[in-house]
């Protein structure tokens, strides 16, 4: 089934500490963002990629897109202060029935997961990729444990997140009107009463966030090549 994808890539990569957008850092000699774009470029069901970029990064993206095999279906728009604002700007350029949002910083997403999400969003309105929490989770206040949280039913949420387009649009408009800032798209659609289905994803669908994630990324890349 056809879909479009918004790829937020307009961050500054503060936690990575590279002094520039982390999406231009390289895994095996190619920028991180190229791998993310490759996945959607290779999928005939992905009709349109909306890349959200930061002011100042245009020339680097222009250069990178010039050689990219998916360039005919990529358009770019400018991002905003927070990730949510960037996705909102991307939404303005979207149409069709199903829209995905996928972080530029998650280069190892599998097509299999994407297709399960698209199907689930078509059926139920909203679906997110996630993996079961592996660690013991505790809640603390001022450095003291208050509670050991039961792990049953806890999920670590990733992207892609997939929606029927009118649902995500309404959720974003309401969040904007109410000045609500969420950490993912699903939190916005949950607020308008929409149910969200979980699609179990892979632990290696990592987001490159801090410097050691680059080591993990090299290892995942090496494993995938075999
Ligand atoms: N992003 C965006 N617009 C923003 C902030 C983030 O499009 N205003 C994008 C990033 O480029 C990234 C994704 O959202 O692909 C996930 O965000 P995150 O991992 O937090 O990246 P950064 O915001 O760049 O990193 P940091 O929070 O460490 O500064
Ligand atoms: Mg950020």
Automatic annotation (TrEMBL):
Catalysed reaction(s) here are: 2-C-methyl-D-erythritol 4-phosphate + CTP + H(+) = 4-CDP-2-C-methyl-D-erythritol + diphosphate
Is the Disulfide bond keyword given for this protein? no
The pathway it acts in is:
Isoprenoid biosynthesis; isopentenyl diphosphate biosynthesis via DXP pathway; isopentenyl diphosphate from 1-deoxy-D-xylulose 5-phosphate: step 2/6
> Top EC class per UniProt?
transferase
Listed SUPFAM superfamilies: Nucleotide-diphospho-sugar transferases
What keywords is this UniProt entry annotated with?
Answer: Isoprene biosynthesis, Nucleotidyltransferase, Transferase
Q: Which HAMAP family match?
A: IspD
What is the name of the protein in this document?
2-C-methyl-D-erythritol 4-phosphate cytidylyltransferase
Species for this entry: Siminovitchia sediminis
């Amino acid at each position: 089934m056809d879909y479009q994808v918004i790829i937020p890539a307009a961050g500054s990569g503060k936690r990575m500490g590279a002094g520039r957008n982390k999406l231009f850092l390289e895994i095996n000699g190619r920028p991180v963002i190229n791998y993310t774009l490759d996945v959607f470029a290779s999928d005939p069901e992905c009709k349109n990629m909306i890349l959200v970029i930061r002011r100042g990064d245009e020339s680097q993206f222009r250069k990178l897109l010039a050689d990219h095999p998916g360039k005919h279906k990529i358009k770019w728009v400018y991002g905003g202060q927070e990730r949510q604002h960037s996705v909102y700007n991307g939404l303005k350029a979207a149409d069709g029935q199903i829209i995905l949002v996928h972080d530029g910083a998650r280069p190892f997403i599998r097509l299999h997961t994407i297709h399960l999400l698209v199907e689930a969003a078509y059926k139920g309105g909203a679906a997110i990729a996630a993996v079961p929490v592996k660690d013991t989770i505790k809640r603390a206040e001022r450095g003291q444990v208050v509670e050991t949280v039961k792990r049953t039913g806890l999920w670590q949420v990733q992207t892609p997140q997939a929606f029927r387009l009118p649902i995500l649009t309404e959720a974003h408009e309401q969040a904007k009107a109410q000045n609500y800032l969420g950490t993912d798209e699903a939190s916005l659609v949950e607020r308008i009463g929409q149910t969200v289905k979980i699609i179990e994803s892979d632990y290696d669908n990592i987001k490159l966030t801090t410097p050691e994630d680059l080591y993990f990324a090299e290892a995942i890349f090496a494993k995938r090549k075999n």
